[in-house]
Structure prediction request, 603 residues.
Amino acid sequence: MKKSMRRRTFFLLLVGILILVLAFTGIFYSYFSRIYRDRLEEEQKSLVSQAVETAEALLMNIRQNAYYLCFNEDLANMLVRSESTVANQQIENLGIVFSVNTGTPTAPLMQSAYPMLLLDGQFPLSAYADSFSIGRSMTTRHIYSSKGVENEDWYVQTLAQKGQTYAFCNERNQDYLFFSHQLSSTRIADPRYNDKIGVVVYAMPMLRLNRLLSGAEFNSQSCVLLLFRGAVMASTDEQLFPAGQPMENAAELPAPGTVGKTRLGRTLYSVTQARFQRDWQCVLLVPEKSIVYQKAPVYLLVLMLISLVAVALMLSLILSRQVIRPIVRLSGIMEQAKDAEHMPPAQETGPGDEITVLYQSYNAMRQRIQSLSRKALDEQKKHRDSELKTMQAQINPHFIYNTLDSISCSALMEGNDSIVTMVASLINILKYSINFSRTTVPLREEINYLEDYICIQQIRFADGFSFEYDIPERYMSVLVSPIILQPLVENSLFHAGNQDGGLRIRLYCEEKDGCLLIHVTDNGSAGNADRINGFLTVDGDPDGHGIGIRNVYRRITLLFGGRGGLHYAQLPDGGLDAVVRIPLQGVLAEPRNEEDEGTGGTD
Prediction:
């Protein structure tokens, strides 16, 4: 046992330390990984924000140039001229004015874009301009006619934008991304023409845009996308995300300003996006496998583990001497104990530490067990004596019944009907009062018991008092505590005092606030309701009276709680009204539906 305990202690200690090491390592790794992950997410958000700022600046420059052209008087004046002989010269001059006003010092991206003006068909000059057609040679001039493109989707969408910039790609010229904006001049004074000039188109080299987006790349495997209405306008990975194609799962991207995950094909990406200009999105996709998380140095964890294992070995040796030996000695003492009377005492050893407390606890437990053993023997003896008394108590009522039956037969033979009646009533009272198996009885049985008691007392007092009761049949099944009415009637009979016309005792009931109120009233003059209520809740009374009604009060409150009770009230004529309160909810023994007809009697 000694070896086994030492091995278990060493093993449990070693396992506990290893669990602590692993838990510490997991917490350390989780904490620093979370910090590193948050830093990476903030870096992704920052990169996307920078790309958005540059893209917004480009769109703002396009909108500003469109506004400049709308307010340019030279451009408006040249459009309304219609000299067919110098039309080509007018187109060249219009192109010079147009190119001079499409570029600002604050727009470096605009220097790479090539602007083109598509004249509306209402101007005569548009008939002399070449029709616009997207191709590789379209950037040779600035002025074109909108004829032939009025039904193309990008042109229709541009006109529908109403002052907003539209973007589109074209498969015939994949080297450029096109931005279009409707022009409406405020300087055209000729009433023959409306303010619609046409559409300005900016051809932005894809190489320039990709270079712009590459500045927002997180690492070499990440990809930055510029989306317009869910379609890819520019991408740093054109093979995976070709321009002009809708982005897969664009609607499932995480909310702007957050970092989430999405799966495109077989690759899981960490995604960050930002929306701007209502229809534009900048998306940064970083493959999860390309993100390198910071990890705790392995050599440090190994060194820590080796150190803790060495400490565990040393602690196990110390514990085996300081803890295990005294415990093994105490276990040997406890093995010698055969029963409560033969438990050897343990001699305390050690410097007063927990082991000493263990020895003291054993000695205290030994004394306690021996004391309890002696008490148990005494209780067994008392239990046997109680069983003998119970058996004797079962014989006594049987003897009393037989004796009373003999008296009743003798009185009957002698013709003494009063004694026969009293003995019969007494037998019923005894049978009712010694039945301790029930805590509640129907009110009907309680009244039957009370009638037997009244019968005996009326024979005793002759015509000295009268008793009457009026109880509706529907209340006869209400459960009450047994023997609660007889003490109240007895109190009126012996302590109320008689009037000139004789003592009258009445029993009746009423229902109020969900409770049954049972009244026992008398017309005596010697009763004092305040005095009786005063000693209902005390343990004794100086004159020795009130034991019966105090017992009634306690049994009712114990059985029914705060809703049940007993109190006395002084009647106007000087008599007393003893009121018993019984809650009706849940105390009906036999629910009935009889009409409100009384069951009563007068003696």
In short: The two ends are 87 Å apart (CA to CA). The first helix runs from residue 2 to 70.
